[in-house]
Amino acid sequence: MSADSDLTLTRILIVEDDPMMQLGLEQSLSSQPTLTVVGRAEDGYTAIALAKTLTPDIVVMDIGLPRLDGIAATQQIKTALPTTRVVMLTSHTSETEVISALSSGADAYCVKGTSVESLLAAIAAATEGASYLDPQVARLVMDHLKPPTQSSSGMIGQLSQREMEVLTLMVEGHSNPEIAAQLFLSPNTVKTHVRGIMNKLAVDDRVQAAVVALRSGLVP
Prior knowledge:
Blueprint: E1 10-15, H1 19-30, E2 35-41, H2 44-54, E3 58-61, H3 70-80, E4 85-90, H4 95-103, E5 108-111, H5 116-127, E6 132-133, H6 135-144, H7 150-155, H8 161-171, H9 176-183, H10 187-201, H11 206-215
Parallel strand pairs: 1-2, 1-3, 3-4, 4-5, 5-6
Helix pairs in contact: 2-3, 3-4, 8-10, 8-11, 9-10, 10-11
């Protein structure tokens, strides 16, 4: 058996209404030894139907789609398939659209025109359970999120030394498996620490936890 046959392939659904962009994405992603494109859709409703049928690991989603936009499609896909990760790849960079996309459940946000390497990094991060924001929109998201509340700031002192170590690596963008490897912990233990951190900081997700840590000066 060849080494290639032992690879675990990440199954990708491409949702893009521009035929040339769609083809270019399929060629770029299919050339990667760990990725395989299992389907393509040109509108939101088709994307939802294909996602439910194909159950891809990753959906690469545009926002500006006919019939049903990518934000609404993402929300429905994440509701039906919570473990499927959604990577937004779009030319839309307005505050409303970026925040709406992330609120709908998108796990990563890339801007069209980004390098293939950046898109692959976003896909890798999403696959491993981490978040990815294009530098063009990261500051916008940081500025949009509210400063930590008094209650979340007060809870910072309750973090254990191990939780602080996990939080620091979360802020640096590491996924749970990467954190587990660096701290010599099991993935389940890391998940427990992440849940504890979010509970103590009174936040709902990893991005908000990172914002609290950064704005509080807890993590440089």
